[in-house]
C-alpha cells in the first residue's frame, strides 16, 4: 500500500462491498478496503486498475492508519455478531471522533445498543440502510443514514456522490438520530415484501384465468411499467417472463420452485408494527405467504385431499384492466401502511422523520422505487402532520376510482379458488380503516363477560363493567 491517506474505508469486500467501494472511487474519492480473504483484496485492487485511488488490505491496523481523519469506515458484513466483531477489531486503532457506518440490515435495537456503546468511547456510529442490490451498490443505491447529525456532515459528500440520483437529486439524506436509518430500511424491506406478494398474485390470476403466455405476461407488465405503475419491481417482472432456461426447456420462471425464502426484515417490520399498534396487514400476509410457501410437502398432500373450483375464465381485456387498477390500489395501500408505521415509530423512538424526505430518497436506486413515490413525497410535503396518505385529498380520487376493480378481482379470485391474500388484505384494511363503525363493540362485551375487562360506551364517558 502507498502512504496516501484515503478518504473512505470499507470492511467486507463481498459483492456489495466490492461494488460500493468502486462506486465511491468513481466519484473521485480515494478508498481503502479491508477483508480477511486475500482473494477479495486482490480482486478489488485489480478492479481499481493503475489508479492510486483504490487499495485494499487484510491487516486491520494498516487499514485504519491509512485513512484520513476523522476516519470514515463503512461495514458491509452480514447482520448479527459479525458486525460486533468487526467493530471490536477496529476499536483499538480508532481515535475519538472517528465514524463507523453499518451498511447492513441490522435490527434497529442492535444499532441503538452499538451507538450508545461507541458514544461512550467517543466514536460516532451510523446505521445506514443501503438498497439497490449489487447493481445499485455499483451504480448508485438509495442510502438511509441515521446517527449523529453533526458527524453526518463528514460522510454526506461521499454518500451524496455515490447515491442514486432522481432528476439530479441524491437519493440519500440524514434521517434522524440513533437507529433512524436502520429502522427506515427495515420498513422499506417490509413494503418490498408486500409489493412482491401483490405482484405475484396478479401474475397468478392472469395466468390461471386468462391463460396468458409468458410473452403476453411480459408485454402486460412492460406496458404497465410505462404508466402509473412504473417501478423497479414491475420492470424486472416483465424481464423475468422472457428469460429462457439454460438447463431445461422453456422459460426459467416456470422451472423455479414455489418456495420463497426470507432474511427476516419483513418479519421484523410486522412484529414491530404490532408493538406500535399500527396495522400493516398487506405486509403481515406477505410474510405469512413466504412461510406457507415453505410448507411445500404438506401443500402437495393437501392439494390431493381437497377439491377446488375450476378457474373462472374471463375476458382478457376486462381482466387486465381490473388487474392494473387492483395492483395500483394495493401498491398505494402498502406504501400507506409502511409510512404510517414510520410516522408512529418516529414519535415513539424520537427519530423526527420527515416522511416527504423518506419518500424522496426511495424514488431511485432502491428496490421499491416507483413513480408513485413522487406523488407520496409531494403529499407529505404539503401536509407535514399527515400520517396516512389515504387521508390525503390527492389520493382519495385515485383510490376511489380503483375500488370497483379491486372488489371485482378479489371476488373473481375467491370464485376461482385462487389465493389473493395480499389483494384481499389490502382491500379489507381499506374497508376497516374507512369504517366509522366496526363490530368490535361485541368483542369488548365478550371480554367484559368472561374477564371483567370493562368497556366504554358511545353515549357517555367513563369505564364500565356489567355483571353479565
Any chance you could write out the topology, listing elements then pairs?
Layout: E1 8-11, H1 15-26, E2 31-34, H2 38-48, E3 54-57, H3 60-65, E4 72-75, H4 81-90, E5 99-102, H5 108-119, E6 124-131, H6 133-139, E7 142-146, H7 149-162, E8 165-166, E9 169-170, H8 180-210, H9 214-225, H10 232-240, H11 265-276, H12 281-293, H13 296-305, H14 316-349, H15 355-361, H16 372-382, H17 393-416, H18 421-433, H19 440-451
Parallel strand pairs: 1-2, 1-4, 2-3, 4-5, 5-6
Antiparallel strand pairs: 6-7, 8-9
Please tell me about this protein's structure.
The chain has 19 helices and 9 strands. The protein has helices at 15-26, 38-48, 60-65, 81-90, 108-119, 133-139, 149-162, 180-210, 214-225, 232-240, 265-276, 281-293, 296-305, 316-349, 355-361, 372-382, 393-416, 421-433, 440-451, and strands at 8-11, 31-34, 54-57, 72-75, 99-102, 124-131, 142-146, 165-166, 169-170. α14 crosses α18 (421-433). The mean pLDDT is 95.
Number of self-contained structural domains: 3
The total of beta strands comes to 9
Assembly state (oligomeric): single chain
Strand order, main sheet: write it out: 3-2-1-4-5-6-7
Shape, per Cα inertia axes: globular
The gyration radius over C-alpha positions equals 25 Å
- CATH topology of the largest domain: the name is N-(1-d-carboxylethyl)-l-norvaline Dehydrogenase, domain 2
CATH domain class of the largest domain: Mainly Alpha
User: Given the helix and strand composition, which structural class is it?
Assistant: alpha/beta
Estimate percent helicity.
Answer: 55-70%
The total of helices stands at: 19
Taking the alpha carbons of the first and last residues, their distance comes to 81 Å
Order of helices and strands: EHEHEHEHEHEHEHEEHHHHHHHHHHHH
The CATH homologous superfamily of the largest domain is called N-(1-d-carboxylethyl)-l-norvaline Dehydrogenase, domain 2
Low-confidence stretches: none
CATH architectural designation of the largest domain: Orthogonal Bundle
Biggest sheet character: 7 strands, mixed
What percentage of the residues does DSSP assign to strands (E)? 5-15%
Residue-averaged pLDDT:
95
